[in-house]
From TrEMBL:
This is Thioredoxin family protein. Pfam families: AhpC-TSA. Residues 9-163 form the Thioredoxin domain. Residues 162-184 are annotated as: Disordered. InterPro entries: AhpC/TSA, PRX-like1, Thioredoxin-like_sf, Thioredoxin_domain.
Length: 184
């Protein structure tokens, strides 16, 4: 599992539309998850130790952001043939166990991850109400272990986006396992 960091935020870059199924087969588009004051698109998976360490915080922050008018969607783009823990069945199990308040979508072709420029799990893309990119940073200072009492960088950034339409100028890149791309 190669550790990868996200690139610097490309402020204003528009969100990419998608049509992806959840674990029940329902197709979701960007417009279905767009929040009144912002939208958080995140690329996660089940097997990554970086995601596992903070999944409870991701769920907490998504729930609290919804109260601020920011909706969340999670997308899993790994190749489950090499990582069976990331199968749709296991995605459903994880979403139920953690009580996801957001859709967890399957990017089987990996085209959505490529269109967004996602590179790792977790990889966060925070958009304002106009679907312009304002945050491409980390959740908090946690790595493979949760950092107790770490400042809530993602939450505070998206709260700022909800209130002002702009993300913070200073952002620390997210870090995680590289996305497991299918072989050509």
């Amino acid at each position: 599992m190669a550790r990868t960091e996200t690139p610097v935020c490309d402020f204003g870059r528009p969100a990419v539309d998608f049509a992806l199924p959840d674990t029940e087969g329902r197709i979701w588009r960007l417009s279905d998850v767009q929040g009144e004051k912002g939208t958080l698109v995140m690329f996660i998976c089940n097997h990554c130790p970086y995601v596992k360490a903070v999944l409870d915080r991701i769920v907490r922050d998504a729930r609290e952001l919804k109260g601020l008018g920011v909706n969340t969607v999670a997308i899993m783009s790994n190749d489950p043939s090499d990582y069976p823990e990331d199968s749709p069945e296991n995605m459903k199990r994880v979403a139920e166990a953690y009580k996801f308040s957001f859709p967890y979508l399957v990017d089987e072709s990996q085209s959505v991850a490529k269109a967004y420029g996602a590179v790792c799990t977790p990889d966060f893309f925070g958009y304002n109400a106009d679907l312009e990119l304002q945050y491409r940073g980390r959740l908090d200072a946690s790595r493979k272990e949760a950092e107790p009492d770490a400042p809530r960088e993602l939450f505070e950034a998206m709260k700022q986006v909800a209130e002002t339409g702009r993300g913070p100028e200073e952002q620390v890149p997210s870090m995680g396992c590289s996305i497991k791309w299918r072989e050509a």
